[in-house]
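Lecture notes, continued. The same structure-token format from the folding unit now serves as the input rather than the output. Read the line below as a description of shape only.
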């Protein structure tokens, strides 16, 4: 085996993609970071038993990470988004808190260093919120099989070796997982999407209309079937008309004075929204992440959670 320093450097090279992998499995930024740390620790302790003739270091690390995630998921519930949990709501109905529901969290691009050469192997499409939310519909083992086979492109035999199961079991799980993901309607979303510049342009137009509280301007950049959801509230709805009704309510209740800070999450464009409080200071209100298609913004995922804000390092207040 290589020296201690070389081994640590080799493992660290894979850290971003291992974080992406654990996030897809767990749907939690904090839990994913903890499992990557555990993976590195397990690899360090077992480094003398690693046999490069049996598997590449990358595959060996994925074996450790995947099984650590499966252990962590044992007995835990899923991390859905509201649209995967309850039926569609009326846009002006009462907001209903999800109570003890544990929601899917967005992943800051900064934690992965997306765009750097070392992260080119990370499939950005598989990090999109809609896809990760759909993964939550699967059992942990189905989730692992789908990620290993369809995201990481491991052959069935290698996936079976990583999961310590048979090729037949992998193929059966993959068939079920693909059917469920297909039923969730997210596979086609990964086929083609606008360039980063085009996505940024759509969201810049959305931001400009938002700070003006211009509902008609917002309607010009969302698709006809736009979906909006906002954990920890279970409310969600689709369609421009419902979206317009809800945004009218938002501006009437929260005011029309806003400051927006661009963010990136899950390889997607978004912003942190600050509303002006009674003291004239702009206070953190929500973090919003957008799915952008060639025809405009098709999904608005709005988060209002202290853990999410902390993961993005967002200040609680900004000056006007």
């Amino acid at each position: 085996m290589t020296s201690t320093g070389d081994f640590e450097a080799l493992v660290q090279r894979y850290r971003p993609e291992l974080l992406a992998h654990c996030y897809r499995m767990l749907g939690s930024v904090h839990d994913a970071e903890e499992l990557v740390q555990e993976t590195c620790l397990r690899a360090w302790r077992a480094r003398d038993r690693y046999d490069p003739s049996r598997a590449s270091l990358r595959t060996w690390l994925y074996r450790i990470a995947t099984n650590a995630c499966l252990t962590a998921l044992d007995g835990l519930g899923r991390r859905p988004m509201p649209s995967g949990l309850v039926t569609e709501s009326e846009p002006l109905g009462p907001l209903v808190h999800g109570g003890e529901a544990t929601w899917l969290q967005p992943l800051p691009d900064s934690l992965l260093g997306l765009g750097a050469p070392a992260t080119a192997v990370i499939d950005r499409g598989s990090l999109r919120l809609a896809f990760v939310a759909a993964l939550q519909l699967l059992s942990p083992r189905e989730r692992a099989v789908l990620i290993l086979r369809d995201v990481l492109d491991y052959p069935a035999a290698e996936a079976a070796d990583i999961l310590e199961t048979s090729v037949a079991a992998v193929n059966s799980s993959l068939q079920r997982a693909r059917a469920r993901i297909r039923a969730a309607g997210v596979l086609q979303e990964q086929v083609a999407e606008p360039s980063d510049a085009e996505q940024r342009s759509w969201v810049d137009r959305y931001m400009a209309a938002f700070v003006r509280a211009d509902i008609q301007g917002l309607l010009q950049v969302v698709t006809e079937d736009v979906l909006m959801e906002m954990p920890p509230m279970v409310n969600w709805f689709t369609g421009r008309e419902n979206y317009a009704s809800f945004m009218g309510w938002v501006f009437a209740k929260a005011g029309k004075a806003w400051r927006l800070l661009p963010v990136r999450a899950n390889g997607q464009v978004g912003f942190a929204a600050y509303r002006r409080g009674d003291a004239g200071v702009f206070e953190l209100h929500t973090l919003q992440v957008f799915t952008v298609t060639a025809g405009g913004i098709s999904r608005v995922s709005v988060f209002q959670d202290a853990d999410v804000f902390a993961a993005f390092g967002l200040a609680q207040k900004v000056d006007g």
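Point for the exam: The chain has a mean pLDDT of 91.
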